Amino acid sequence: MAMRLVRIGTAAVSVKVGDFKGNTHRLQTILTEARSQGIHLLVTPELGISGYSLEDRIYWPEIVRRSWECLLELAEASTGISAFIGLPVRIQGQTYNAAAFIANGDVHGLVLKRYLPTYSIFYEGRNWSAWGGGVTTYEGVPAGDLIFRMPYGLVSAEICEDLWTASSPAQDRVQAGAEIICNPSASPFLPGKNTERKRLVQGTATNLKAIYAYANLLGCDNSRLVFDGGGLIATPDELLCDVPILSKQAWTLDSAVVNLDDLARQRSENSTWRQTSGRGRADTTATTPSHLIDLRQMPYTPAPLADYVAQMPTSFYMPE
Questions:
Q1: Is the alpha carbon torsion for 10, 255, 173, 293 positive or negative?
Q2: Which of 72, 230, 257, 269 has the least CB density, counted as fewest CB within 10 Å?
Q3: How far apart are CA 64 and CA 45, in angstroms?
Q4: Is the pTM of the predicted complex or chain greater than 0.90?
């Protein structure tokens, strides 16, 4: 039986606020390149379709409508690959920050942002609504707290600030069985902040016994913010991918191969994991139960074993 080797990609992308055509074209280019590299699961930044600092523009009906149209275009380009793409959605008069999961030509669900920063330089509470939990629908697609059962394992997401909270949505989703957590982010540059991101991502992967993949926005927005890009992929043991920040390129794409069978072994061996996880079933009752979307019928060929082995250290006993 083949190991569950999954190549995860993280893309830092420079986008322009309101440039739907340009942003969509750039994301399509990245999807094509990721597919050519054999990436199974791609994480792109928060609000990559619309741009991040929409401010009061988010109330314009055209913003949400155009974002959805562009998402459908990107979904058509997702044959042979799955990806999280960021966009705004409006449900019953409330505007939410969403990470759409696209794969094999369709939009399969929208994970909605739960925590909104209104401190420091952030004003998200003015324009956005925080998702309160549960599952609804948007344009006929499930939206809210979701887990996607792929042929290789269980995937979910949380968005930017969700990672920085004391009670992140990832905790519930991992307890419900999720093995890979993706984080589309728009995290502005501050000196030393990327070091803090790395501590958070690695600590979360270690504590939750999960794979954590993080992708950050790159470049300048339309007002006062600078995004430093970068990307991180962590296992419970190590940081497999650490993309340099402040790239001068329009986008970066990096990847790593993870072994979900090894993750399952770690979870089964860890007594405290067994006590808190509800034995990893996707139908367990967590604080906020997640809805499971079954996509196991999708094609999947494991990443080459040689690529996984190439990431390993030359010695497991002596530091390099």
A1: positive
A2: 269
A3: 17
A4: yes
Residue 201: partners with Cβ closer than 8 Å, 6 or more residues away? 163, 183, 212, 214, 232, 234, 239
Tokens standing for residue 320? 């390099």
pLDDT of 288 reads: 55
How open is the CA angle 133-208-318, to the nearest 5 degrees? 155
At 283 the pLDDT is 47
- Helix, strand counts (H, E) of the chain: 8, 16
Instruction: Give the span between the Cα atoms of 256 and 292, in whole angstroms.
Output: 26
276 closest CA partner among 157, 172, 158 = 172
Per DSSP, what are the bridge partners of residue 112?
98
Output the CA–CA distances (angstroms, integers) from residue 160 to 16, 113, 230, 287, in the order listed. 19, 8, 13, 20
CA distance 250 to 174: 33
Cα torsion 241, 247, 249, 252 to 10°: value is 10
Question: 10-residue block means of pLDDT along the chain (320 residues)?
Answer: 91 95 98 98 98 89 96 97 98 96 97 93 89 96 97 98 95 95 96 96 97 96 85 97 96 98 95 73 50 94 96 74
